Amino acid sequence: MTAIPAWPPRSTPRLFVETPLAPGPITIDGPQAHYLVGVMRTKVGDPLKLFDDTTGEWLAIARDVGRRSMTLDVTQHLHPREPVPDLWLCAAPIKKGRIDWMAEKACELGVARFVPVVTRRTIVDKTNTDRLHAHMIEAAEQCGRTALPAVAEPVKLAAMLRDWPATRALFFADETGGAPALAAMRDRPGPAAILIGPEGGFDDEERGLIRALPAATGITLGPRILRADTAAAAAVALWMAAAGDW
Predict the structure, then answer these.
(1) 129-143 pLDDT per residue, tens
(2) Which residues have C-beta within 8 Å of that of residue 217, sequence separation ≥ 6?
(3) Domains of the chain
(4) Distance of alpha carbon 74 from the chain centroid
(5) pLDDT, tens digit, 9 for 90 and up, residues 193-245
């Protein structure tokens, strides 16, 4: 008996759209249309997968393909928006390229919110949150995710700590030492955040402010020195394991 090919095929292009999706026509233009037409060679009748970070993933069929825009028929709801663990990643901005990688991994690993935190040793003057969001979208499109992390505007460390919600645990990677990360995270289940400092680490006054926060726990990520972006990915992976998400 001949096997019936999966529909839609696994190779079907995936695309994030800002508009909440529902059955019916939708128009794609700009860079997205250029990608579909010029790069993916999408033709009339071809399937696409769309997701909107609200309703989940949908199947759409190309109905009208032009040089600069295309019309799709949204036909079938494939998956609801995935549940997202209640974890924030709060990280000091680092140089371009490395923070882009950090944002991508935050999306791939399932972080709910990404917060750039300005510390005294932060060497990056400005953080382009639109660019970080774009990198997260690309990661979600490639990895089959239906949810995107929220990206907050940069906040100074002292201001973030002053307004910190008492019910959210804050695990901060402390280069001077702390509790083993996995054990500490298992001991404090529930809403949480991970705080990663800049390349030079937190200064003594900042470390004192963090430790004075009742919700804060200093953690160690092992015997090796990690770059800030590596530390962020490692800490998120450990929290997900402790939370049973892996």
Answers:
(1) 999 999 999 999 999
(2) 169, 170, 171, 172, 178, 179, 184, 188
(3) 14-79 (2.40.240.20), 87-242 (3.40.1280.10)
(4) 26
(5) 999 999 889 999 999 999 999 999 999 999 998 999 999 999 999 999 999 98
